[in-house]
Write a structure and sequence with these properties.
Blueprint: H1 3-32, H2 34-37, H3 45-58, H4 65-77, H5 83-94, H6 98-111, H7 116-128, H8 132-145, H9 150-162, H10 167-175, H11 181-197
């Protein structure tokens, strides 16, 4: 191996090490200090998503122009990611464009199936629009991803079970014996007992 080719190999190894180190630092900063890594060059799409989410939460769910710009920038930087799409879906929902919001949330769910925000939104939208089988499919996934949502999801399922148009979907879902069937039955019994004692 000549001196020049050794120099090229060393340069490539050093460049690879630099890119690996930078990726690790950016990933850590995205999670811990998104405000810092969002403004690094090049800007991190994950950090921009985190900043947009923080801004939306700080404003009690309001999506202002700054949050919209952060979402758009994040979508451009990480186009395959689901989280920025879910935030864009929230923005479309806030504007009253429910068909577009549904499309964005469904795409977000496909790209990030473990992201509970999209699943929760879709559960409620499917229940609202009488797509009960789809709602119950989202219910199971959401409860597995975010167990703390179980009481609210159980309450929604209980309401669906009392509606003539939704009860058949609940019966079909329970007949498949999903992982949430027994805990739901225990919750429903506890609710019935609590209501009987008052």
């Amino acid at each position: 191996m000549t001196v020049a080719s050794r120099g090229v190999v060393i340069a490539l190894v050093l460049a690879g090490m630099w890119f690996s180190l930078r990726a690790a630092v950016v990933a850590q900063s995205d999670a811990v200090r998104p405000e810092a890594s969002a403004w690094a060059v090049p800007r991190s799409g994950n950090a921009l998503t985190a900043l947009a989410a923080q801004r939306i939460v700080a404003q009690d769910g309001a999506i202002d122009p700054v949050a919209r710009a952060l979402i758009a920038d994040a979508m451009a930087r990480v186009p395959a990611a689901g989280q920025p799409l879910a935030l864009a879906g929230l923005a479309a929902s806030a504007e009253g464009d429910l068909p577009r919001a549904t499309q964005l949330m469904e795409t977000a769910r496909r790209r990030a199936p473990r992201f509970p925000l999209a699943r929760n939104w879709l559960l409620n939208e499917y229940a609202r629009t009488a797509r009960y089988d789809a709602a119950l499919a989202e219910a199971g996934a959401l409860m597995r991803l975010a167990p703390e949502t179980r009481p609210q999801v159980y309450a929604l399922i209980a309401v669906m079970a009392t509606r003539a148009d939704a009860a058949p979907a609940v019966r079909r879902a329970l007949a498949r014996q999903p992982d949430w069937a027994e805990p739901y039955a225990a919750w429903a019994r506890a609710q019935k007992q609590a209501n009987a004692s008052t």
